[in-house]
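Example 3.
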Amino acid sequence: MAKLLTVFGATGVQGGSVIRAVLADPALSKSFKIRAVTRDASKAAAKELVEKGVELVSADMGSPSSLADAVNGTDTLFLVTLPDFVTGLAPGTEFEHGKNVADVARDAGVQHLVFSSLINVTDASNGRLPHVAHFDRKADIEKYIRSQDIQATFIQPGYYMTNFTNLQLLRKGDDGSYTLAGPTHGSKAQLPLFYPDSDMGKYFVAVARNPSQTMGKQIHAAADYYTPARVMAEFQEVTGKKAQYVQLDHDVYKSFIPPPIAQELLENELLCEDPGFFAGGSLSEGHRLLAEAGLAPTTWKEFLESQREAFA
Ligand SMILES: NC(=O)c1ccc[n+]([C@@H]2O[C@H](COP(=O)([O-])OP(=O)(O)OC[C@H]3O[C@@H](n4cnc5c(N)ncnc54)[C@H](OP(=O)(O)O)[C@@H]3O)[C@@H](O)[C@H]2O)c1
C-alpha cells in the first residue's frame, strides 16, 4: 500500500518543488500518496495541486487543533516554516509554528519528518551576529524536533538564486551594464547558491529514496559556494552583459532596506563571510545523495541560462 506524504508549504516554492519532484520520480510517485496542506484551498496554486491528483487539506500551523486531522495517517512529512518578518506575526511565532507541527507529527507517529532548517547564527558567530532570527528560530525548531525523538532529516537550503531576480538585486545601469551591491567583500563572502523551485524537490527525493542513510543528518543544499565576484563573472559570461560587484558600507547597505529588517538582513549577508552560511559545512554529502538518485543541483550558470530573456 502507498505511504502518505504530507507536505506543508505545498502552494509555495519549497513545498511545491517537493511535490513536483515526487510526482516526477518513477519510484516515489508509486510509493507515496501526497497530501498538501494550505490555509486557503480556493487559491489557484491549491487548485492546481488537486488537478495533479494531490489530496488537499486545510490547516494553519498557528492552530494546533487544525493540524491533527491534517497530519493524521502521515508516514513522511515535509515541513517549511516562514520568518516572523515575512508573516508579520509576533517574534517567536516561526518557532511556535514548527513546534506545533512537530508535536502533532510525534503524536501521529510520523516515521520521517524532513524539515527545511538553517543554522543557529548567534551560536555559530559566538554572539557577533545575534539578529538573524529567521535562521536561529529554524535551528531552535530543529533542536526541538531532535528533543522529541522524532526520526528526522534536516535539509538546509542555501542562498536562493531567485533572490537576485525576484528582489531585483542585479541593477541595470544606463550603459546597459549590471551591478550587484552588497555589504560583503567580493572575493571573501561565500554564497551557497541554491535554486529552490527545482532543487528542494531533488534533495527531498534523494533523502526519501534513502531515509536510513539520512536520518538525523543535516544536508547542506546548494550547487556550490560562489563569491559575489564569481556570481557577477558568470553572469557576464552567460548574458554577455558587462557586470560588476560593488561592496557597500554597512550603513549604506541598510539604508536600502526597510528599517525593521535592515539589521537582520545585513547580518544574514555578513554571515556568508564569517562563519559561513552553513558555518563552513561541506556540500559534498548532498551532492553524493543527489548523484545516487541520478540527480544534480542546478548551477548558477544553468539558472542564468533559464533566465536569459530577463537580461536581454
Ligand atoms: N531566500 C533565501 O535565500 C532563503 C534561503 C534559505 C531558506 N529560506 C527560507 O525559505 C522559507 C520560505 O520558503 P518558500 O520559499 O517555500 O516560501 P513561500 O513560497 O512563500 O511559501 C510559503 C508556504 O507556507 C505556507 N504557509 C504560510 N503560513 C502558513 C501557516 N500559518 N500554516 C500553514 N501553511 C502556511 C503557504 O501556504 P498557504 O498560503 O497556501 O497556506 C505557502 O505554501 C523561509 O523560511 C526562508 O527563511 C530562504
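Residues 8-15, 37-40, 60-62, 80-83, 97, 118, 134, 157, 159-160, 163, 196 surround NAP (CB under 6 Å). DSSP finds 16 helices and 13 strands in the chain.
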